[in-house]
Design a protein that fits this description.
This protein has five helices and four strands. By secondary structure, the chain is α+β, with helices and mostly antiparallel strands. A four-stranded mixed β-sheet has the order 3-2-1-4, with helices on one face. The radius of gyration is 14 Å and the shape is globular. The two termini are 26 Å apart. The mean pLDDT is 90. The structure holds FE2/S2 (inorganic) cluster (FES).
């Protein structure tokens, strides 16, 4: 592993990769989407149970590399229990984080562990795969590509 990549694989990322949260199927989901990363061919599925505008439960199935799996796991924890509008805001904040590498001043969440991704354009697609899939599911779009 080269030093650039080693910088990315921080403890928090590895921990989520090894023991992903909210993984598997969600039999009573009422929204879902499949995301595709054309750069590597990896796919991810996001299942949601939304009730009264609140994201009551979420599951993720399948992923590619450590970055995509860890990001998906962190995402589930970041949005579970939030309203659909709040989840969209978290998406925007995360997108800024991995594009620009800057966390919100008040952001003490684990998501900031992925800030280093912004220096690796190919990895941005990995980190955002689950997030684009989440947003597609929230918008009742069944398929999304990170192109
Ligand atoms: Fe496929 Fe990262 S290499 S999502």
């Amino acid at each position: 592993m080269n030093s650039e990549l080693r910088d990315l694989y921080q403890d928090v990322i590895l921990s989520h990769y090894r023991q992903p949260k909210n993984w598997g199927d969600l039999p009573d989901s009422n929204a879902n989407a499949e995301g595709f990363n054309p750069l590597c061919g990896d796919r991810i599925s996001v299942f949601l149970r939304v009730k009264d505008g609140v994201l009551e439960d979420i599951r993720v199935n399948g992923c590619g590399c450590a970055i995509s799996c860890a990001s998906a796991s962190m995402m589930t924890e970041a949005v579970k229990g939030k309203s659909v509008e709040e989840a969209e805001v978290v998406f925007e904040q995360f997108h800024r984080l991995v594009i620009e590498g800057e966390a919100q001043e008040d952001d003490d969440s684990e998501l900031s562990a992925l800030a280093g991704v912004h220096e690796h354009p190919v990895r941005i697609k990995c980190a955002t795969l689950a997030w684009h899939t989440l947003r597609a599911a929230l918008r009742n779009e069944k398929q999304v590509s990170t192109e």
